[in-house]
Design brief:
Number of helices: 10
Largest sheet: 8 strands, mixed
Strand content: 15-25%
Shape: globular
Number of strands: 8
Helix content: 25-40%
Order of helices and strands: HHEEEHEHHEHEHHEHEH
Oligomer: single chain
Radius of gyration: 17 Å
CATH superfamily: Alpha/Beta hydrolase fold, catalytic domain
Number of domains: 1
CATH class: Alpha Beta
Structural class: alpha/beta
CATH topology: Rossmann fold
Length: 298
């Protein structure tokens, strides 16, 4: 493990997802301790996207933005809000120069699949419809997220392809949760990795699916056909149960003719980018911003 990260491992709270309320409290405490970058004159506003039910979003609007990303927070499908995502969404907006629409989707187990995907889809449609108001071109809309949110973003790309829209320019998938079957080498063997391990992954999917069979929109690794999807960037952490399903999905995208950039970050664990003082975390954040900036460029 990267020595800068390893020094922080004892400080990470021991948690599981057996109690969503406790997990949400721990995530809120962790997010509150993460410094927020200087936003300068960036406009940040909370809005509500009309839907049934309405979806809260936080919009970050850097000056001169040309494109936007619908951004979905991590949290094992059961944790996270636009508030806990603020340090990461702000970093992405600063680093990419893109408008970031951070989505406060409904959480499991109270709202199992497809609630989160439906919320994300409603926000994607709203973002495309309001592109002029946001100061961006409607053909420069990406989707992305971290962990569970990245899995939802991948499912959103599949759904948009199958429904012939809205058009998505790019997928930015950071350590995505893509497969509920837990049968890859990393999913079977990473039983005591920091912050996220096999047991926590199993609990996350159990809450998200609510006892129903997984569809490809819920677990994109189950999709038989990956042709026609938007170009993608997929980042993985070395000590993460999701690692091998992510690398496998990237390979299948490539074999389906989809352009993919893959970065396997050595010495990292799931969510270790929260340790923003580490050099490798700073590299991860800088790359996410640079990749999105490039994807939305002319």
């Amino acid at each position: 493990m990267d020595p800068e990260l390893e020094a922080f491992v004892p400080l990470f709270p021991k948690s599981d997802l057996s109690s969503p309320a406790d997990s949400r409290r721990q995530l809120a405490e962790l997010a509150a301790s993460v410094p927020v970058p200087d936003l300068g004159d960036m406009v940040v506003e909370d809005r509500t996207v009309p839907a049934d039910p309405p979806v809260p979003v936080r919009i970050y609007r850097p000056a001169g933005a040309r494109g936007a990303v619908v951004w979905l927070h991590g949290g094992g499908f059961v944790m996270g809000t636009v508030e806990t995502e603020h340090p990461w969404a702000a970093r992405l907006a600063v680093g990419s120069g893109a408008v970031v629409v951070s989505v406060g989707y409904r959480l499991a187990p109270e709202h199992p699949y497809p609630a989160a995907l439906d919320d994300a889809h409603a926000v994607l449609r709203w973002t495309v419809d309001h592109a002029a108001e946001l100061g961006v071109a409607p053909d420069r809309i990406a989707v992305g997220g971290h962990s569970a949110g990245a899995g939802i973003a991948a499912g959103l790309a599949l759904r948009a392809r199958d429904e012939q829209g809205p058009a998505i320019r790019f997928q930015l998938l950071n350590q995505p949760g893509l497969d509920d079957r837990h049968d890859t080498w990393s999913a079977r063997n990473f039983t005591d990795t920091p912050w996220f391990d096999r047991a926590k992954a199993i609990d996350a999917w159990r809450h998200y699916l609510g006892g129903r069979p997984a569809t490809p929109y819920a677990a994109p690794a189950r999709a038989a056909d990956l042709t026609g999807l938007p170009p993608a960037y997929i980042a993985t952490a070395e000590y993460c149960p999701n690692r091998d399903e992510d690398l496998g999905y990237a390979l299948r995208l490539l074999q389906a003719g989809v352009s993919v950039e893959v970065h396997q970050w050595p010495g990292t664990f799931h969510g270790s980018h929260a340790i923003v003082s580490a050099d490798i975390s700073q590299r991860q954040h800088a790359e996410l911003g640079a990749v999105l900036r490039r994807a939305l460029a002319d």
